[in-house]
């Protein structure tokens, strides 16, 4: 990258202390402050605000996508023209009675159900390569980690998985978060992290499961 700079005249370089500076491509209304609410996720906010998921995450580089809590201050990027903004319909609250009850009695509201082909992976170096036993965000792999195609299930989405039959996973279903990706995970596919040896985990094979996208 070329970091050379042209010399500026003293007059043009002088700035008044406290003056506002607009960078190229930005306007005074390029971003909006937002206070997170309980159960907010980047995926949910991207849909609600009409902002691409990756753009929203880029605007909040210091925010852990898995730790968005009520009261957290977020930046919502906004580079739409006024005419474009006026054409965007105001999101109306969606009231849904859909919920699934776990074997422990917990009621989990959900917005969507997807039929998925699931496989499983372990923490072995053969399966995780040079990156080691961490997910896409660099967090250690743990029960509840799943790898997804982010075009189908966006990263950061919380889900409830049912329909599998495997001794290494909780009976009745698993609450998980999409925090990992894999080259072979395309379309309606997920890869579920399971603690244990590679040989043990490989017995999972391929199974048809239901994935509930939680609110």
Question: Tags for this entry?
Answer:
single chain, 215 residues, alpha+beta, Membrane-bound Lytic Murein Transglycosylase D, Chain A, Barwin-like endoglucanases, six-stranded mixed β-barrel, two-stranded antiparallel ribbon, 9 strands, hydrolase activity, hydrolyzing O-glycosyl compounds, LysM domain-containing protein, 3D_dom, LysM_dom_sf
What's the quick description here?
The protein has 215 residues and is of the alpha+beta class.
**Unreliable residue stretches:** 1-29, 80-96
Tally of extended strands? 9
Q: What's the architecture of the largest domain, going by CATH?
A: Beta Barrel
CATH class label of the largest domain: Mainly Beta
Relevant CATH superfamily of the largest domain:
RlpA-like domain
Helix-strand makeup class: alpha+beta
Q: How would a crystallographer describe the biggest sheet?
A: 6 strands, mixed, barrel
Shape: globular
CATH topology title of the largest domain = Barwin-like endoglucanases
Instruction: Tell me the number of helical segments per DSSP (H or I, 4 or more residues long).
Output: 6
Query: Order of strands across the widest beta sheet?
Result: 4-8-5-7-6-9
Element-level helix/strand string: HEHHEHEEHEEEEHE
Please compute the radius of gyration using only Cα atoms: 22 Å
Which bin fits the share of residues in helices? 10-25%
What distance lies between the first and last C-alpha atoms, to the nearest angstrom? 44 Å
- What is the count of distinct domains? 2
Percentage beta strand:
25-35%
Mean pLDDT: 78
GO molecular function: hydrolase activity, hydrolyzing O-glycosyl compounds
GO biological process, one term: peptidoglycan turnover
Signal peptide: 1-30
Domain LysM: 32-76
